[in-house]
């Protein structure tokens, strides 16, 4: 098989006796899902998938060339420090100038480093980022493969030869994999869903409303868990493929650690950096989609005009705007929210943009923003403490910053909602709502029922 080797570059990072060598090659088009599937043999537990809305950038990572892990409250600073160490090791660099290629870091954080941890999230630390061995990058401009290798002084050639063989075999296998859209499988798999303690969740909402009315806190996002039991192992590749097809406005992601996989289709951008431009998104307040265009329009108008929905959204706008103003020049925010429609749900949406000041990094912005009042509450510290006290679950990486960073400081993070952790035949899905003074437990419960729909639909099969 011939691979179009149009351009090639080598970046060398030196770390005392170690060097991170990153080689980028342009390829003939390759299907990212097939590449992910081809990686199952040698890299299961060490794969990731990412695509942004409209598939502007699709990444598939296999293996670990370098890893950054951090625990505790200063995890953002620790990751930033380790990232800088990695950057300082650049010795020579010939840049292809194709954003999203080269030694990218991909990973994320847990929601709250101080929350009690359960076995469910045992493979996901407070912060974990990897530079993959193989990174497939697909954009509208083309398709690239980065091979990253960490070499000790002296053993260059052996690893290089092995990787070259491995690379060829991966590409061969990926091109041979023919993936169905999953319709055949959907005949066979059945799954049952269990709402975990819905009554306790409603009581927590009522309690949060009391505390908000007492002035202890302004807004708290409370989540609940839905457990799915399937009759066979959850097929991550098919689920991802269906999420991409069905949730075109969302970021689709999967990140494997050990035998577990965290995946989802989140519409919620947290912050993106491109050069010195920063983009953040306020997304909060939800209503369903109509069955007819008229009903859809009516629901949208209700979302735009109802006082409870406006207040719920405004907390997010105020906080994100002031966080951006603290770090940026020329912050721009529309006066009114607009509607953001996905397959099963519509939200109020306000984009915020700005120009980063010197010293503002993507990660410092992530740290400042997380959690926004959409996924945590307001004020931030009080809301996180309330969640710790009131929520009966381990959020793990749900509603947390997840994304990628390149060596130039560009990258993008989302709030990882509409997601779940897959463990064999089981998935734990998480759905949450922003609770405000005018929230009603029953209506909030109905709202949470909209949120697992993308994941449940993408699992395929039939509900029993
Ligand atoms: C917390 C979630 O979603 C968040 C809560 C919303 C709401 O309460 O209206 C809307 C969008 C998200 O910011 C979730 O989907 O789990
Ligand atoms: Mg809501």
TrEMBL record:
UniProt xrefs under SUPFAM superfamilies: ADC synthase
GO biological-process terms attached to the record: salicylic acid biosynthetic process
Record keywords, A-Z: Isomerase
Pfam families reported in the protein's UniProt record: Chorismate_bind
The keyword Isomerase is assigned to this record: yes
Domain of life: Bacteria
InterPro entries, A to Z: ADC_synthase, Chorismate_C, IsoChor_synthase
Catalytic activity: chorismate = isochorismate
EC numbers for this chain: 5.4.4.2
Record keyword Isomerase present: yes
Signal peptide: none
GO MF term set: isochorismate synthase activity
Domain Chorismate-utilising enzyme C-terminal stretches: 198-451
Region entry Disordered, spans: 440-464
NCBIfam families found in the cross-reference section: isochor_syn
Stated family: Belongs to the isochorismate synthase family.
Protein known as: isochorismate synthase
Organism: Novibacillus thermophilus
